[in-house]
Amino acid sequence: MASIESVMQEGRRFRPPESFRARAKLKDAADYERLYRQSLDDPEGFWGAVANELHWFKPWERVLEWEEPFVKWFVGGQTNLSYNCLDLQVERGRGDKKAILWEGEPGDTRTYTYRELLAEVSKLANTLKGLGVGKGDKVAIYLPMIPQAVIAMLACARIGAVHSVVFGGFSSAALADRVNDARAKVIITADGGYRRGSVFALKPLVDEALERCESVEHVIVVRRGENDVQMQPGRDRWYHELIESASDVCPAEPMDAEDPLFILYTSGSTGKPKGVLHTTGGYQTYTYLTVKYIFDLRDDDLYWCPADVGWITGHSYIVYGPLLNGVTQLMYEGVPTHPAPDRHWEMVARYGVTIYYYAPTAIRAFMKAGEEYPKKHDLSSLRLLGTVGEPINPEAWMWYHRVIGGERCPIVDTWWQTETGGIMITTLPGVHDTKPGSAGKPFFGVDAAVMDLEGNEQEAGSGGYLVIKRPWPSMLRTVYGDDDRYRAQYWSEIPHVYFAGDGARRDDEGYFWIMGRVDDVVNVSGHRLGTAEIESALVSHPAVAEAAVVGRPDEVKGQAIVAFVTLEGKREGSEALYQELRAHVTKEIGAIARPDDIRFADALPKTRSGKIMRRLLRNIAAGEEASGDISTLEDKGVVEKLLRPGVSR
Ligand code: WTA
C-alpha cells in the first residue's frame, strides 16, 4: 500500500490554464456548484432537459422510477441510440463531417463521414434483419479495433438487438462462456487482426468456441487479417458479401427507454464474470452529457481514445458518447509501441489530435520507454488529456502533464466502472484545479460518499468504502439473468447505497482519492480481472490441487498477478510446469490473465476455519512483512516455508 500512502500525501495542484478556461463550456466553480445542486435537488428537471437535447420518437411519462435496487429512467419514452448517433447528426448538418478517421496497425486508413457511417450501419442492420435477428436478440461481437466493430454495435442498436462485445484478447473458452450466458444468436467476428506487426487469428477461436455453443445460428466474418480460415457452409458468411446486396436505408427501431442496449461481461470477486446489463434512454443521456462537459467538446476537436471497444471505455467513450456529440474521432487498430514507442505521438502530430484519453498503465509504459519518443513530435495540437481505468500515481501524472501536455493541457482523471456506464468522478477541465492522484469531484447527478460498512459517512480525510447514494441514469440495471447477484453484489454490502467495491477518501475540498479495489479483483494494465476466475483456471489443470491468486504492485501494470499453487500428489514445481500453467490460463481466459509469477507451495496459509489468508499472501507476493494479525493462521510453518527462498518456480 506504499503507493497509496504517497498519493494521499500529494500536495501539488494545478489551475486550469487561462487559455483553456477562456473557451471552456463551464469555467467557474459556481457553474459547477449550481448545476450539481440542481442535478441532485431536481433530478427530473435536470435529466429531462439533458435528454431533450437528443431525439425521442415518443416523450417519456416519468423521468425516474426507483424501487431499490431497480431503477427506470424516462419511463414510457421511445428513442434509439443509433438514430441519435447518426441520423440526428446528419439532421444537424454533420452529414459530411468526419465521424471516424481509422488507421490500421500496418498504416492503412479509412474514413467515414456521419452520412457514410449511417449507410454502413444501415446495410449491416438490414443484413442482420435478413438473418432473422430482431428486437431483444443477442449478438456477440468479437472483433479487432476496426471500423466494423463500431458499425456492428450501432447496427444492433438500430434494430434493437442486444450486443455483447467480447474483447478480442479473450480466449475461445472465455468467448464460449459469454456467448452461452447471453444465448447469442449471431457472432460478428473477423478472420484476424493486426497486433505488434503480425496477424492474430480470431475466426479459428470462434470455431473452437462454437463446439460448445448451441444458440449461435450465424457467424459473420469480416475480412481483415487475410489469414486462412475455414468457413462452415450454412453457418459462416463473409461480411463483405452479405452487405453487398443490402439496402443502405434502414429506419431505426423505436426502443423503449428501458429496453436493453448491451450486455458487457466484467469480473467480480466471486464466480464467473457477470453480464452487466445497460439499457437505452438513461445510458444515452448520461454518456452524452459526460462527453459534452468532461471533454469540453468543440465542433473542431479531434478526439482520440485508444482503448478497445471490448471494454466499457470503448462502449461509452469511443462509440456512444462521442458520436452522440457529433465529434470527429481517431480510431487505431494496433498497439501503441508498433513499429516504435512513438506510434501514438506520431499519430497525434500527423492527425492533429486535440483530446487524448487513455489508461495510466500506458502512460507508465511511455514514461519507461523515455521522453525522447514524444519529444520527437509536435504535440501542440493537444488541449486536453484524460486517464481512465485505474489509479494514476503522481509521478506518471506529472510526466503526462509535462511531457505530453506541455504543461498546457488540463488532465481529467476519470473514475468509473463497467457498472456505472459513464464517468462518475472527475474534475471538469475548465472549472476545477487538478491534484495529481485525485479523480476529483462527482459529476452531475452523482451522489458519491465514503462510508464505513455500517453506512456512516466518513469525515474528510478518513478512508472508507466508495458508495453512490442514489441511482443515476447510466447505472447498470441488473446482472443479466441474475437479479439476486445484482442485489447482493451492489446493494447489500451497505444498506441502501450502491457499493462500488473501491476504497476511497474524500479531502476537505470534496475531492475523491480512490485507493483501489477492496475485493478480490485485480487491475492489471487497466484490465479488471477476478482472482477467483484465474484460480479456477489454474485448478482446472490436472497438476494443480489448490490455487490462490493475488495482485502485487507493479511499476508499469499497476498490479501483476502472482499465483500460489499446491500440486497434486508428488508433483514438483519446475520451469516447465510454470510455462505450462501460464499457457493453460491463457487458453482458459486469455493472455491478459496470465500470471507473472507462480509460486509452488506445499500448502497455502489458511485460517482455522479453512479460509485462505489472502492478505498474508499479498504481503508475501509484495515482499513485505506480514501486516496485521496472523494468530488465526492454522499452521505457522506454512508461512515460513513460503518465505524461504526456493519456493518460487
Ligand atoms: C478502477 C473501467 C482509480 C476502479 C472504466 C474501478 C479507477 C475499476 C479509475 C472499474 C480511476 C477506474 N482511478 N481507479 N480514475 N477508473 N478505476 O469496470 O477500481 O474495467 O472499480 O471500468 O477500475 O474497472 P472497469
From TrEMBL:
ATP binds at residues 389-391, 413-418, 502, 517, 528. PROSITE patterns: AMP_BINDING (PS00455). It catalyses: acetate + ATP + CoA = acetyl-CoA + AMP + diphosphate. Signal peptide: none annotated. Acetylated. Deacetylation by the SIR2-homolog deacetylase activates the enzyme. Its cofactor is Mg(2+). Residues 32-85 form the Acetyl-coenzyme A synthetase N-terminal domain. GO terms for molecular function: acetate-CoA ligase activity; AMP binding; ATP binding; metal ion binding. One of its GO terms (biological process) is acetyl-CoA biosynthetic process from acetate. Residues 92-472 form the AMP-dependent synthetase/ligase domain. It holds the Pfam family AMP-binding. CoA binds at residues 195-198, 313, 525. Mg(2+) binds at residues 539, 541, 544. One of its GO terms (cellular component) is cytosol. This is Acetyl-coenzyme A synthetase. It comes from Truepera radiovictrix (strain DSM 17093 / CIP 108686 / LMG 22925 / RQ-24).
